[in-house]
């Protein structure tokens, strides 16, 4: 370590520490795992760290909201909205991009999405104008949508938003919501009473 | 065998630094001078059920001072030969966590293991003070019959706070009001159903009992239109007046519990202090009897300073009823003589203060 003055050595240490602290603010990482990640990257500087930094730089500059649905994309219109096959007359309304990704991961839905960008909450100062509800009405007419599927959380805010959206699109398309009940592969013994009640109310004949 | 705590361990819990109690299935009588930590033991037991316990304290208030290292309550609870180890604790600045049989579970899971019903001196003025206390009393009883009552009440509160904000802001968006009111009506109707069920079960349990305690005729009153449809209509039609008030003026949050001392035809609030206490005890015992019928075991009862307002005859009658019910009733009192009428099988504990910490020993 010759050639480094005491001060610049401290400074270099400080920058690595600052990077670890920034990483620790990411979801799923704590101070220890962030330091481990930084160390891991430093040991693979050319293979991992520099390409990662470049990719982050590119995405930070290019990422934007899809003008149609609000999904994240690096183009004006996202890949799902560009794909003609997905214009099947169904639109799934979700709270945020994380919900959209969860739906896509399941691979069960073949239509298009509409990301609201939040939930109605007077206490959090989120009103209808902050959500992409007028745009949804426009899309129903433009894209010939027959069914709007509400995939919103089963919380008070989620259900308030669901009722509000259902009211806003009433008459222009059929509105449905996701079912609530027993999870696939789930045992009744472990379910909370509210879920069992909801599952019973939503029962269907075999 | 009925639901009962077998061992109870307290660590840095209010006045208790470290305490361990082994208790039998019958009544548990804790006696000792003021400030010796008797009620704290009952509070610890109350935290084996969901919620904030019998003092409605936040987790930060419970930790023993000056250490401030957090607190822990452990218990082995038995019921029909089934045993569960419950551990509930809070680290400083954190919320309370619960483990059952060494697995982390949500608080509501406690309701499925132990139903716990209590009566504390703060409830002595229940009939003379505001409706809020009576609603809370009724809601706890409703919760003891129906564990989902808490979720319905929370959903109603949350939707109402949202609506109240719209009212205060003078918002003019009928669809937004309608969306919130639908949820208020649905959860509010569930709250009403649970409360009505509780009142009905208490009434039945009082009617069928041979007891030394006066029966209370219960009814629900207040600005609370019954049923989902009526609630929805009241919210819809009340928007203008509610906006002037800046809050929701009708609904389950405005309900009240009225009690009539049935035998004398006198409203509970007009009865003597002792009679009011007797009425409350009568309701708590009715709650326990109804739960015993519904679940096959009586709940655990926590009766703080219960002997204070009762004469010797009523006290003996209370003990006899508890023993007949087979409930594990935890009771406190300043002197051992208050519990002389209890039968042999009772667990007797003496509480005292020793060098800044409470001390519990078998008596």
Automatic annotation (TrEMBL), chain A:
Chain positions of all zinc fingers (C4-type): 66-81
GO terms assigned for molecular function: DNA binding; zinc ion binding
Record's signal peptide: none
Start and end residues of each Toprim domain: 89-183
One GO term (biological process): DNA repair
Keyword Metal-binding in annotation: yes
CDD domains, per database record: TOPRIM_recR (cd01025)
InterPro entries: DNA_Rcmb_RecR (IPR000093), Rcmb_RecR (IPR023627), Rcmb_RecR_Znf (IPR015967), TOPRIM_dom (IPR006171), TOPRIM_RecR (IPR034137)
Keyword entries, A-Z: DNA damage, DNA recombination, DNA repair, Metal-binding, Zinc, Zinc-finger
NCBIfam families: recR (TIGR00615)
PANTHER family associated with the record: RECOMBINATION PROTEIN RECR
Matches recorded under HAMAP family: RecR
Protein's job: May play a role in DNA repair. It seems to be involved in an RecBC-independent recombinational process of DNA repair. It may act with RecF and RecO.
Family to which the UniProt record says this protein belongs: Belongs to the RecR family.
Name of the featured protein: Recombination protein RecR
Gene name per UniProt: recR
TrEMBL record, chain B:
A Pfam family per the record: AAA_23
HAMAP family in the cross-refs: RecF
Organism expressing this protein natively: Hasllibacter halocynthiae
GO biological process: DNA replication; DNA synthesis involved in DNA repair; double-strand break repair; SOS response
Stated name of the protein: DNA replication and repair protein RecF
Cellular compartments annotated: Cytoplasm
NCBIfam families assigned to the protein according to its UniProt record, in alphabetical order: recf
Similarity remark: Belongs to the RecF family.
GO molecular function: ATP binding; ATP hydrolysis activity; single-stranded DNA binding
Organism lineage string: Bacteria, Pseudomonadati, Pseudomonadota, Alphaproteobacteria, Rhodobacterales
């Amino acid at each position: 370590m010759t050639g480094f003055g005491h001060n610049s050595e401290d400074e270099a240490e400080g920058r690595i520490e600052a990077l670890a602290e920034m990483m620790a603010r990411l979801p799923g990482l704590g101070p220890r795992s962030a330091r481990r990640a930084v160390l891991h990257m430093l040991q693979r500087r050319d293979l991992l760290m520099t390409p990662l930094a470049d990719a982050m730089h590119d995405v930070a500059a290019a990422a934007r909201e899809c003008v149609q649905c609000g999904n994240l994309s690096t183009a004006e219109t996202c890949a799902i909205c560009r794909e003609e096959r997905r214009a099947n007359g169904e639109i799934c309304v979700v709270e945020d991009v994380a919900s959209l990704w969860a739906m896509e991961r399941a691979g069960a839905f073949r239509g298009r999405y509409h990301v609201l960008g939040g939930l109605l909450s007077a206490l959090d100062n989120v009103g209808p104008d902050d959500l992409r509800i007028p745009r949804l009405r426009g899309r129903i007419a433009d894209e010939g949508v027959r069914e709007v599927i509400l995939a919103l959380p089963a919380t008070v805010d989620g259900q308030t938003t669901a009722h509000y959206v259902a009211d806003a699109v009433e008459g222009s398309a059929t509105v449905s919501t996701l079912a609530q009940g027993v999870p696939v592969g789930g045992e009744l013994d472990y379910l909370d009473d509210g879920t069992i009640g909801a599952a019973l109310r939503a029962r269907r004949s075999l | 065998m009925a639901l009962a705590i077998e061992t109870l361990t307290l660590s840095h819990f209010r006045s208790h630094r470290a305490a361990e109690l082994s208790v039998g299935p019958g009544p548990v009588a804790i006696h000792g001078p003021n400030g010796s930590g008797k009620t704290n033991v009952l509070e610890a037991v109350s935290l084996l059920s969901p919620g904030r316990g019998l003092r409605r304290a936040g987790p930060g208030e419970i930790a023993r001072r000056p250490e401030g290292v957090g607190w822990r309550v452990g218990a082995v609870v038995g019921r029909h030969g089934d045993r569960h180890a419950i551990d509930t604790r809070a680290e400083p600045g954190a919320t309370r966590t619960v483990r059952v049989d060494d697995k982390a579970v949500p608080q509501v899971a406690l309701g499925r293991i132990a139903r716990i019903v209590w009566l504390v001196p703060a409830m002595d003025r229940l009939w003379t003070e505001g409706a809020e206390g009576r609603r809370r009393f009724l809601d706890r009883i409703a919760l003891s019959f129906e564990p989902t009552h808490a979720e319905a009440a929370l959903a109603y509160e949350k939707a109402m706070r949202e609506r109240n904000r719209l009212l205060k802001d003078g918002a003019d968006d009928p669809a937004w009001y309608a969306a919130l009111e639908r949820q208020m009506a649905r959860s509010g109707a569930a709250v009403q159903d649970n409360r009505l069920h509780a009142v009905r079960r208490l009434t039945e349990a009082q009617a069928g009992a041979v007891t030394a305690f006066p029966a209370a005729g219960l009814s629900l009153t207040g600005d609370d239109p019954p049923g989902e449809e009526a609630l929805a209509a009241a919210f819809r039609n009340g928007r203008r007046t509610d906006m002037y008030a800046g809050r929701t003026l009708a609904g389950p949050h405005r309900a009240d519990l009225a009690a009539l001392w049935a035998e004398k035809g006198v409203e509970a609030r007009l009865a003597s202090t002792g009679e009011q206490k007797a009425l409350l005890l009568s309701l708590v015992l009715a709650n326990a009897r109804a739960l015993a019928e519904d679940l096959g075991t009586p709940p655990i009862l926590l009766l703080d300073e219960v002997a204070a307002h009762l004469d010797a005859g009523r006290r003996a009658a209370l003990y006899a009823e508890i023993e007949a019910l087979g409930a594990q009733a935890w009771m406190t009192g300043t002197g051992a003589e208050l519990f002389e009428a209890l039968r042999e099988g009772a667990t007797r504990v003496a509480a005292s203060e020793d060098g800044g910490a409470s001390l519990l020993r078998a008596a």
